[in-house]
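User:
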Amino acid sequence: MSASYILLAVFGLSSLVIVHEAGHYFAARAVGMRVTRFSIGFGPVIVSYRPRHSPTTLQLCAIPFFAYVMISGMSPAEEVDPNDGSLYSNKGVWARIAAIAGGPFANYVAACALVFVVALGLGWPVATTAPAQPQQPTTYERLSVGDAAQIAAVYPWRLTLANLQRMADMVSRRTSEGLTGPVGMSKLIAEQAEQGAFAFAHVLIALSVAMGLFNLLPFPFLDGGRLLFLGCELITRRRVNPQLEAVVHAAGMLLLLGVISLVTLRDLIG
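Assistant: Predicted structure:
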């Protein structure tokens, strides 16, 4: 596997994470929250820039892998001014739901947009009535705008159902066989990039859907875990203790990091 495909894989996976964080950023800004930082990568900052009249510092770090945004008022350790309407903690529950759901939503929008562009530009696999033959090449057909839009609306949902079925199968069989970490995903993207433009685009579509779905799981630290707390607030009409929620998310983060580390080690050995 050449270095160019590895770099392409890192770029592709990082782009999906950037899209996810951009979803949080634009949703938070749309509901009037102050976002203080949008970082691409981690480690030492290489370059940073804050646009005029903007509260957000945009930065590129030494390891351009993954991304994150910092929304003022999300951390219970911050000093909160009750009169500051731009803080996450001072916003209504629906505004906070929008900010949290913006990330997974952006991944689904990106998947739909990619399907649409691919179906128009590269073509989409078409079903044939002829009997299947060994090594039979896939037939691609460029779709019309209407057909491409229909596929774009339906295909990510089909991928979601397939992912849910695989998750249920993993739980029933008590196996982690289907889990993969950043290293495994990068390998997969690089392998598909070697197969051509359609295979590369398709794996990005599939991973964007998987990323959106994974983040919606009701597990602490994930977006779905935060939405679960917000859902409890909607039902009880009482905000969950911020310190308690922070402890739960911290425990979830440690558990997830442990699982990711083990899966990554398995991917490296494999």
